[in-house]
Amino acid sequence: MWRWLICGLAGMAVGIGSAFSISGGWLSEASIVSGKWSTDPTVGAAAANPWVRATIARVGLLALTKEETIYFNRELDEDGAPLVETCTYALSGQALPTRWWSITIYGADQMLPVNTDKASSIDATRALPAGATSWTGSLSANRPATGQWLSSKGGGRFSLTIRLYNPQSVDRAFLEGLNLPQVKKLSCSGAVAGVGGKK
Q1: Are strands 148-151 and 134-140 parallel, antiparallel or unpaired?
Q2: CATH 2.60.120.600 fits 2-188, yes or no
Q3: Do the Cβ atoms of 162 and 37 come closer than 8 Å?
Q4: CA gap 76, 184 in Å, rounded
Q5: Cα–Cα distance for residue pair 129/145, rounded to 1 Å
Q6: In what order do the strands lie in the sheet with 159-167?
Q7: Residue 135's closest CA among 91, 73, 187?
Q8: Sequential DSSP letters for the chain
Q9: pLDDT digits (tens, 9 = 90+) for 97-155
Q10: pTM of the predicted model as reported, rounded to 2 decimal places
């Protein structure tokens, strides 16, 4: 009887741990960090463990092979604070050693924020016209007068994903040395439901 009880408790512990791992993010111990951006090199690789595969299935990430696309994610600004809808951020970046890139905003549910702004992504084509080597933009709930813009309206506490298509290399040292876009907080106002216990 005790044997069955112990086995049952062990099974529950494994199940809860797996659920926590899946809901908490898809990065593994092998994650690569570049600034406040991070990636799991097993995404899109045969070596992906069951938790990475399950999380990809849950969030609907279309994971190409890592030679085709590297996915970096971030949930924090340059000061290490969570990215939230009620704050305005300055974006800045430069040309990257990859064929093309795009940055997309995702809400806490891993879906695009629900709004009508049609500004859920920025890409290399728009941000870097011919001859340009650097770019700037903004990330906020309100549309700026000019410039590149990501709308966080309806995003709550959100995250950003940058996709690097056909990167020059997929070696760890190369990826860790990338100078990926910065996200600097400029100002904040109000409160976001579900963030910091505020309603």
Answers
A1: parallel
A2: yes
A3: yes
A4: 10
A5: 19
A6: 32-34, 37-39, 69-74, 159-167, 98-106, 121-123
A7: 91
A8: -HHHHHHHHHHHHHHHHHHHHHHH-S--TT-EEETTEEE-TTTTSTT--HHHHHHHHHHT-----TTTEEEEEE-B-TTSPBPBTTEEEEEEEE--SEEEEEEEEE-TTSS---SS---SEEEHHHHS-TT--EEEEEEESS--SSSEEEE-TT-SB-EEEEEEEEES---HHHHHT--PPEEEEEEE-S--TTSTT--
A9: 999 999 999 998 889 999 999 999 999 999 999 889 999 999 999 999 999 999 999 99
A10: 0.75
Q: How far is the first Cα of the chain from the last one, in angstroms, to the nearest whole number?
A: 47
- Return the structure tokens found at 191: 């409160």
Domain regions of the chain by residue span: 2-188
Paired strand residues for 103: 122, 162
Q: What confidence tens digit (pLDDT) does each residue in 1-44 have?
A: 544 444 443 333 333 333 333 334 445 557 899 999 999 877 65
Q: 53 to each of 22, 45, 49, 63, how far by Cα in Å? A: 9, 10, 6, 10
Contact 53, 47 (CB under 8 A): no
